[in-house]
Amino acid sequence: MRFSGNSQTPERGFSEAGARLAGMTATAGSPPAVKKQPELLRPDGSPVRVLVVDDEASLTDLLSMALRYEGWDIRSAGDGASALRAAREWRPDAVLLDVMLPDMDGLTVLGRLRRDLPDVPVLFLTAKDAVEDRIAGLTAGGDDYVTKPFSLEEVVARLRGLLRRAGAAAVRSESVLTVGDLVLDEDSHEVSRGGVDIHLTATEFELLRYLMRNPRRVLSKTQILDRVWSYDFGGQANVVELYISYLRRKIDAGRSPMIHTRRGAGYLIKPAE
């Protein structure tokens, strides 16, 4: 898929583009699309952070959706000042930066950014495709340069490469998660409790995996929606409760419970007592 960067519409309509992102669907009334399990993680095991800086709201939304689908944590900014403030407070692992911003150009933003984050990878994204513009961006300290129109798949691939080369993220290597007698194999997608196989749907598997990657930690509905489902969940506010109930029927039925509700806070999983 290619996006023109035009301030009006992408080469395909925004709703269609968003709907076709990496196989995601956005049919009215359908369950929200499940995200990928993140391949790259921060040293503490949390998803990598990417700051998207562009003043075109439609472009920022589309990029953010694509990157969140990869399982990454995303924040966005529409001008240089907001970008610098977000970078200082949030400490991203990579920055996707437009050269032309309303308050200052991207090269100026990069210069100031380097004072606080000297090693953060920066991928320039711009309509300025002249050779001298590319040279200026790379000379100023940019790590890579993508011009509009661009391919979402290319942007994701370039960011992934920058993160790996910078050592900002580690490739996820563990494949088996264990909480008490509950075992989940991320490679084979097999789940068992006490040696008894449990058959889960794709969405149930992703939800259980997220809970098991955070044992004994209370996860809010918002966190679960943002991590397990696409960011725009179509107003289905009860989808988390619904799938938690599905999991309980399969995981806890006839056994000591492992999935617990903390009223007003969220859900957690822990070994049965």
Description:
- The chain has helices spanning 14-19, 57-69, 80-90, 106-116, 131-139, 152-166, 202-212, 221-228, 239-251, and strands at residues 2-3, 40-41, 49-53, 73-77, 94-98, 122-126, 144-147, 150-151, 170-171, 176-179, 182-185, 190-193, 196-198, 259-262, 266-269.
- Strand 14 and strand 15 form a beta hairpin.
- The N and C termini lie far apart (50 Å).
- It is built from 9 helices and 15 strands.
- A 5-stranded parallel beta sheet has the order 4-3-5-6-7, sandwiched between helices.
- The longest helix is centred in the middle third of the chain and has 15 residues, at 152-166.
- Helix content is 36%, strand content 20%.
- The chain has 2 domains: 2-171, Response regulator (Rossmann fold, 3-Layer(aba) Sandwich); 176-269, Winged helix-like DNA-binding domain superfamily/Winged helix DNA-binding domain (Arc Repressor Mutant, subunit A).
- Residues 3-33 have low confidence and may be disordered.
- Helix 3 (80-90) runs parallel beside helix 4 (106-116) and helix 7 crosses helix 9.
- The chain is an alpha/beta fold.
Record the SSE blueprint.
Elements (H helix, E strand, L loop, with lengths): L1 E2 L10 H6 L20 E2 L7 E5 L3 H13 L3 E5 L2 H11 L3 E5 L7 H11 L5 E5 L4 H9 L4 E4 L2 E2 H15 L3 E2 L4 E4 L2 E4 L4 E4 L2 E3 L3 H11 L8 H8 L10 H13 L7 E4 L3 E4 L4
Parallel strand pairs: 3-4, 3-5, 5-6, 6-7
Antiparallel strand pairs: 1-8, 2-9, 10-11, 11-12, 12-13, 14-15
Helix pairs in contact: 3-4, 7-9
**In the CATH classification, which architecture of the largest domain applies?**
3-Layer(aba) Sandwich
Order of helices and strands: EHEEHEHEHEHEEHEEEEEHHHEE
Q: How many structural units, i.e. domains?
A: 2
| Largest β sheet strand count, sense and barrel closure | 5 strands, parallel
The beta-strand count equals: 15
The SS-based structural class is alpha/beta
Number of helices, where a helix is a run of at least 4 consecutive DSSP H or I residues? 9
Which spans of ≥5 residues are poorly predicted at pLDDT below 50? 3-33
Strand content: 15-25%
The rounded distance between the terminal residues' Cα atoms is 50 Å
CATH class of the largest domain: Alpha Beta
Query: Nearest-angstrom radius of gyration?
Result: 21 Å
Query: How would you sum up the global shape?
Result: elongated
Q: For this entry, what is the oligomeric state of its chains?
A: single chain
Summarize model confidence as the mean pLDDT: 80
